Sporulation protein RMD1
Amino acid sequence: MGYGVVCTWGLSQLREQEVVQLAKKCAEEPLSMEEVEIDQFQFVYSVHDPPSMSNDSITINRRQAADHQVKLAICHALAQSTKLCVYEERVIDLVMSTKHLPQHMAEHGTVRISAKEVAQLIGQVFLQRSAVNLLSSVLDTPEFFWSAPDAMQVLYERACEYLELETRVEVLNARFEVGGAHHA
């Protein structure tokens, strides 16, 4: 997938690791080990239930078990969610590394870092903000759904709702708005 994410279904842990290692060798900018994000879902086949997601479990109807488009529709949402997790973690790390600054400024009227360090922190904020803005285009509905049956897009949209993609992007952008207000 174009997100730099690997989705696998039903592989052994060893096989999965082999696939991930191969993908890392092909990556232009592989993530550091600290940034690697792993989401795991269980999946089951059902005789009666339509495809759905709940409680980190994916249900696929047995009649659709051989239809790769069903898994691909779900994979797009999972990949987007996993990619979003990486950016959420980066923003949390940035907030945690600077959270002492407003408190110190409130108590003492100054901060104990140089102007250069302040400029570097602001630069980091802008880099993450622009990365999240670029991520928004990654979170658009993939081209796959332009030619896929409508039911696949509905499944994708349900998966996106379950993974709360839209809300998470809004929260992430809101964190930057609060940060931007302080730097204005």
Notes: Confidence is low (pLDDT under 50) at residues 180-184. The longest helix spans residues 68-98.
